[in-house]
Design a protein that fits this description.
This protein is an alpha+beta fold and about 220 residues long. Helix content is about 30%, strand content about 20%. The chain folds into two domains: about 50 residues; about 160 residues, Cyclophilin-like (Cyclophilin, Beta Barrel). It is built from three helices and eight strands; from the N terminus they run αββαβββββαβ.
Length: about 220
C-alpha cells in the first residue's frame, strides 16, 4: 500500500513538472528563432550593402571655368566615354574644390595644366579611363580637349586637369580625355602666350599663375 500511494504521488508530481516545463520550452524556442531571424536579416543587409555599385554620371554635361582677369571657358564633358572622370570632376567642382586653384604649368602651343589641391583640400585618386589602362575611350587629344593629369601610376589622377592648346595625339590612349572646350579657346591662347614660365617644363611661379575663380556646373 505504501508503494502504491508513493507511486500515485510521484505521477502527480511528474505531471505538474511536465505542465510547468512545456510553456518554458516553447518560450525558449521562440527566443532562439527570433534571434536567428534577426541574425539572418542583418546578414542579408550586409550582403545587400556590399553588393551596391557606385553610380556614375552618363551623357553630356556642361561646365564653365571662370579664370580671374581672363574670362570664362565653356566645356562639354562626355560621361559616356569617361564616367568616372566626369563624375569626379563634377563632384569636385560642385563642392567648390577648384575655387582659388591655379594653372601652375603652361607650355605655349601644347597645353595649360591646373586644379592642384591647395592646403586643407583633398581629392581621391581615380581609375585612368584610357586604352592603355584597359578602358575604351575614343576621345582624342585634339585642340580644346580637357584631359586628366597623372603621375606614372595610371590610376593616380585626382583633381589636376589640362586643356590642350594644340593637337597632342602622342597622349592618346595614355591620358583620360573627358570633354572639349566649346567656347573660350581664345582665352586659352591668351593665357598660354602671355604667362611667364620658368623652364622648358612650363613651370609657373605662384605669383604668375592664372587663378580659377570657380568652376560652375550647368547640367
Amino acid at each position: 500500500m505504501c508503494y502504491n500511494r508513493y507511486g500515485e504521488g510521484m505521477k502527480k508530481i511528474l505531471w505538474l513538472v511536465v505542465i510547468f516545463m512545456i510553456p518554458m520550452m516553447l518560450f525558449g524556442c521562440g527566443e532562439r528563432q527570433e534571434s536567428n531571424e534577426e541574425s539572418s536579416s542583418n546578414k542579408d543587409s550586409e550582403v545587400s550593402s556590399n553588393s551596391e555599385e557606385e553610380v556614375y554620371l552618363t551623357g553630356l554635361h556642361h561646365v564653365e571655368i571662370e579664370i580671374e582677369n581672363y574670362g570664362t571657358i565653356a566645356v562639354e564633358l562626355n560621361a559616356d566615354q569617361a564616367p568616372i572622370t566626369v563624375t569626379n570632376f563634377v563632384s569636385l567642382a560642385r563642392s567648390g574644390f577648384y575655387d582659388g586653384t591655379t594653372f601652375h604649368r603652361i607650355i605655349n602651343g601644347f597645353m595649360m595644366q591646373g586644379g592642384a589641391a591647395k592646403a586643407g583640400k583633398h581629392a581621391d585618386t581615380i581609375k585612368g579611363e584610357f586604352s592603355s589602362n584597359g578602358v575604351e575611350n575614343t576621345l582624342l587629344h585634339n585642340r580644346g580637349a580637357i584631359s586628366m593629369a597623372r603621375a606614372n601610376d595610371k590610376n593616380s589622377a585626382s583633381s589636376q586637369f589640362f586643356i590642350v592648346q594644340g593637337n597632342a595625339h602622342h597622349l592618346d590612349g595614355e591620358y583620360a580625355v573627358f570633354g572639349y572646350v566649346t567656347s573660350g579657346m581664345d582665352i586659352v591662347d591668351k593665357i598660354c602666350s602671355e604667362t611667364k614660365i620658368e623652364d622648358d617644363n612650363g613651370t609657373v611661379l605662384e605669383e604668375n599663375q592664372p587663378i580659377i575663380k570657380t568652376i560652375r556646373v550647368l547640367d
